[in-house]
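Changelog note: in this version the structure field was regenerated for every chain. One regenerated record is shown below for reference.
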Amino acid sequence: MIHVYAAVKIIRSRRMRVQFAGQTALVTGAGQGLGRAIADELLKRGASVFYTDVRPEALEDVDVSSGRATPLVLDVRSERDWEAAAAALRAGGGIDILVNNAGADMMCAFETIALQDWQRLMAVNVDGVFLGIRAMIPLLADAAGRRPGGASIVNISSILGQKGMAEVTAYSASKGAVTILTKSLALELAPRGIRVNSIHPGFIDGPMLRHGSQRAVAAGKYASEADFIAHLVKMAPLGRPGTAAEVAAAVAFLASSDASYVTGAELNVDGGYNAS
């Protein structure tokens, strides 16, 4: 006889495996870090997933053995690339879930920012989201009526899109734009059955955090990468960096029919940072 608790765990596990069966997702910036974790999580839960990244070499290790993972080179700044992605999805039957994760960061004093560097950051973090959503709206609207809970767009913003931080002004401005874009689109697209929500990761252990720590040390602001990360972690009441898997689980929730009455929301995965 199976213990009741064990039976519940089995049922939940089976449900997770088929949660997105028959559905298609596209994840940008899926070559590494958060994007890879998000794409892997949706794949694990039954979705067919387009793993996209601007760097072909970052997609070489995508496991295609399931028949549901498709690597696709995509520069989110390119209108032509987004049109090609939409055409590929249309030919394959459409898209149910769009995750705008691709992003760039910048850490420096505001007055030292060159215009071209500002524009380069905004092109990835803001223009990329704009172009992606605009290209996918017709396909998502087509899927919305066939999918429990409607179609779903999940935008990866940041805690720095909610609160400021010195010398991260350009990044904060770009993520603030994503936050408000998400809310406005949630209102605009609700009549078409498309839910739009944002995830706000805190300090997540991964490539972006490591690159930031290296730059901080190189600039002479911290003695070591460990010192820099320890400084950030002190700002999170849970006292540790987050993991990519924790962010991916939050994305899966917002993308699923479990969140069918959730749109225009900001979901923080930040160890309590924004509450402090």
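Spot check on this record: The two ends are 47 Å apart (CA to CA). The helical segments are 4-17, 33-44, 79-92, 115-144, 169-189, 207-218, 225-233, 244-255.
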